[in-house]
Design goal:
Chain lengths: 409, 409
Amino acid sequence: MAQSVELLRSPVLPGGFIAAGVACGIKDGGKLDLGLLVSNYPAVSAATFTTNRIKAAPVRLSMRHLKGGQVQAVFVNSGNANACNGKRGGKDARAMAAAAAGALGLEQRQVFVCSTGIIGLPLPVEKIQEAAPAIAKKLRRGGWRDFSRAILTSDKCSKIVSARIMLGGKKVTITGSAKGAGMIAPNMATMLAFITTDAAVTAEELDRATKDAVSASFNCISIDGDMSTNDTVLVMANGAAGNRPLRPGSGASRIFRQALARVMLELAWRLVRDGEGVSKFVTIEVLGAATQRDARRVAESVANSSLVKCSWNGSDPNWGRVIDAVGYSGARVDESKVDIFFNGIAGAKGGKAARTPITRLKAAVAKKEFIVTVHLNLGGGSHRVFTSDLSEGYVAYNRLEYALKIQGR
Amino acid sequence: MAQSVELLRSPVLPGGFIAAGVACGIKDGGKLDLGLLVSNYPAVSAATFTTNRIKAAPVRLSMRHLKGGQVQAVFVNSGNANACNGKRGGKDARAMAAAAAGALGLEQRQVFVCSTGIIGLPLPVEKIQEAAPAIAKKLRRGGWRDFSRAILTSDKCSKIVSARIMLGGKKVTITGSAKGAGMIAPNMATMLAFITTDAAVTAEELDRATKDAVSASFNCISIDGDMSTNDTVLVMANGAAGNRPLRPGSGASRIFRQALARVMLELAWRLVRDGEGVSKFVTIEVLGAATQRDARRVAESVANSSLVKCSWNGSDPNWGRVIDAVGYSGARVDESKVDIFFNGIAGAKGGKAARTPITRLKAAVAKKEFIVTVHLNLGGGSHRVFTSDLSEGYVAYNRLEYALKIQGR
């Protein structure tokens, strides 16, 4: 359903939103590392956060601000997660919100703050405070691209997606931007995503629509199975399009939900494609599970198996490792019923090797994007997870971080 | 306790056991790939098996034979797991048992069979049948070394461990051999282990002692989090030492249990040290958890995090990734109480960076073997897991297997 919504070739910011990105000196080499996104009007807001029990200070602060009702600005830094910094972390997160509020003439509780980067290093908040007035002056509709670059960490490129729909005769735009790259696991990835729309939506409807869309997109991707302390998805709806506010259950709301889900799914896919060291984009499709829960267990077990991911990196149609991960997933499995396909070509039928020539299987897995289908032939449960291979590049990228950053302390 | 038992510098096979290893042609290049281990007397036997719901045919057959009571021979091939081969797999496993039984003059149900290697390729059982008479002729006390080499797959070296204890004035030997290398996860690794002893032990005591020792050794190691279809630990006790049969609760049985646990723990450690691409041996020690279960969850979460394991590979004391994995383990955590140490040197205290100079932390993690201690400061739960780094070598080794093996089919 969601996939039928058309995306804009040139993403644009919805009406009533402005943005900017600057380099404030957290990252070396003058890289953009501070982003500000503002709605000209109070915006109905909904969000989902990491389920990690260790939550970064800005996550805890933004959870409180979100309860206050209407968020009007998002202030984000990259290069430092402001996680595990004790009481100082909370103080710095509040100082960051205060700096944006001061520069914009807003209440502190109207500012949502996010940080992403290394865990356990104190945030150089004075750099953010100094840069706040300047970034506020740079705010404009076209500032979205700089904002999207300023939130990146190890991502190779920024990710911006726009959809346009008609709601009650009004043109409505939904535009999102996200960052990811490592620490990507189901149930929120190491990621930030900011979705803006000029639709008018009731708070109740936006909350439900956001949760549903996140569960079918960002919660279905996995790169390395690690879930971060900072994951956040925020949706802001400012009503600038002038449509009648969307309520749960209405026809217009159905269209809005589809478009919101489509934008999030596209962003989630781009996060996987741009994951650290990723050379393959793989969809794990589980069918015929005894229950929905079993289907999810099997898909995640396969998606998080290091051995399976290594085999994809080598374009090896190693269905034996796939069925091994199916077996230890905890789901009900009858070995003699398991079928495994690579792009629809049978690797295993009834729990043993299919009679497919190996050249055909290899050709399927040699593609940069392919689907691994696991059919358990037990019931109606199904689930999809979007994931990647595990490469030497991933290891090389992640073997040294903390000691480098902390050098000279 | 178990660690106080002394191991023999030169391992020897206990009295009444003989063994052999030959090359039967499953592996290329004349490598040893078939092992036979025999007790001259009926032996009380106990075993634990993979909990993977996809079990290899030889595992299913050996589970049945074990119920028959006394196993007297173990017939093992490497290079092919005989897993996921449908009905033919079961037939081939039975043929393998029959071949050994015929060559040894035993009943088929007295033979325990094991296979290890690639999943999903039919077992060339005729090669095993042809080699059975020849390997039976080669059986002798000194054949243990060939046996230990014949069971290896991607292992770089064989692992043999012996302990000697006195039980009621009789000299008792416990000797074990194991193979591992990849697909190593808690709750049995991709591994086979065969432990022999000339102690006289009741079936009940041997079963309990085996389960306890496995749970404190092989079930506490993790290389890549993948659990295989073939994992098996078998203990055979033939009573040749002439001691009074050990019963649960006796003082002699306590000594026996310690020695058995020590042999298994040493084998488990050697499996980790010889894991695919392993350059670091890391002990994860969790203290102060609210419950034992929480302690295990935290230890396994840290041990299986790709990001944490990459940082060890780079000798990076990245405690932020460790605390992140603690946070998503599902265990109760109070961030402000978490302490993390590398070889006893504090990386984090109270959930934030400790004031330790980075050079000291780096020196600890630069060692080939070190301990990561996570103290949750919540209760009395503790657990240890033995694990490794994740290297580019692991990925390079595992990226191509099935397509290579199947070439020219």
